[in-house]
Amino acid sequence: MNNQDRYKKKFGINDEGIEKTQRALDYALDIRKFEIDMYWRRATYFWALIAVAFAGFFAVLGSKDIDQRELYSFIIGCVGLVFSWSWFLVNRGSKYWQENWENHVNMLEDSVIGPLYKTRLQRPKDDDIVEKIITGPAQLSVSKINQWVSFFTLIIWGFLIYSTLPPFLVSAPVSFLRIVIFGATILVCIMMCWKGKSHVFSYTHIMRSRKARIQ
Question: I need a surface site. Which of 31, 52, 131, 212 has the fewest CB within 10 A?
Fold first, then answer.
């Protein structure tokens, strides 16, 4: 029995369990909508954090009343870099789980409503150049565009951090504080990739319960 046959057997596809398939499809559609909603909620959350970081960076760097403003701007830049890296990873994680439920819908819908989700209807081709390039629809992924925006923001933070560094001279003193802060920034970003993955393997639950009573 291959994987597709095992999947169909589990969810009653092409079997007597049409009610089971219907309920599974309803759950998959609901959770997919939930994942999409949470995707944009998370995006709004990170947009706010990154906007505050940008505002703080330029406010500190442009202030003449703050001593060591380059150092403080460097610190804010590292914070902004961590926020942007987090946003980049969260986008990928959200897309992973969204596609998981979309794949379930693809498998479950045929025996319940037909291949609705897998069937695409589009307008006929238009020779109008304005319609093609500007006003017409395009086969673009909104989440992928958002992913590119987060990646671009990462690059911008990299350039901004570099702009706050002092000149690289042999005779210049070494800023150990900058080294420690930047090292911590890179370490946190690496740990997000290493220890931030979802647990997808089988495991056994541990249940603990307690009793309470009134004497």
Answer: 212
